[in-house]
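User: Second chain of the day. Same drill as before.
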Amino acid sequence: MKSVVARQSDGTVQITFTIPFDQIAKAQDETVAEMAHDIEVPGFRKGKAPLDKAKEKIPQATLIEHSLRHILPKALADAIKEHSLKIAIYPKYELVNSDPNKDWQIRAVTCELPEIKLGDYKNKIAGEIRAISIKKEPTREEKEQTVIKYLIQNVNFTIPKILIEEEVGSRLSNLLARIEKLGLALEGYLSSIGKTTESLRTEYEAQAKDAITIDLILSKIVGDQKINTTDKELDEAIKAANAKPENKTVVNSILKKRKALEFLTGLK
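Assistant: Same format as last time:
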C-alpha cells in the first residue's frame, strides 16, 4: 500500500492512498462474511445464504464503506509512521477511484498543529495586568479578558483551515439543534436577529479562530509550565460537570487549561 503526503502552508495535510485491489477484494470478502449473518435471502434461513447470494443484497455503497473500515485504520497508521506525521484530528476521507479490478485511490485530509512560540509572555502579561490595576483592583473576569486579548493579539501562528471549518460546523449544528427544539426554521430565526447565513458563518469563523487560538496557546502553556491535576481535582471536575468516566481525558485537558489561565491571571 502506497501513500503520498502533501503539506499545505497552513498545516493542512493531504494523504493519498493507493490500495492494491487484492487487499480491497479481501476486505470485501471479510465484510460480506460479517454482514451475511443478518441478511435474509429467499430460500435460505436468515444468515445461512451462500456468501455470493448475500453479497447481492448488500448495497454497493454500504459494501465500500464497511470494506474501507477494514483497511483505512492500518493505512493511516502506516502513513503516520512513514511520513512522521503528527495529525491533530481524524481525517476526512474521499474515495477518488474505485474502478472494479483496479487499485483504489483514497484521499484523506487532516492537519498538523502549528508551532507556537510564546515569547516573553509572562512578563508582558504581568505588565498588562498591572496596567489595568492602576485605578482599581480588577475582577477575575477582567483579568481573564486582559490575558485572552493579549494572547490573541500577540501570539501569532497560522491555524489550519480544516480546524476552523470543523469548529464552525459544530457551532452551526448546535444552533440548528436549538432552534429545531423551538420549532423554528433557520431562515426565520436568522431574519428575526437581522442576520443571513453568510453573515452568521463569517461571525462563527471569527469566533472559531479566536477559540482555537486560545485553546492551542493554553495547551502550550500547560506544557511550558508543566501544569498537572490531582486525582481529587479531576474527580471533583468530573462530578461538577456531570461528565461520564470515559470523558476523563477531555475533562483533564480542560482542567489543565483552566489552571493555565489561572496561572496567567495571577502574574504580577
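The radius of gyration is 25 Å.

User: Great, on to the next one.
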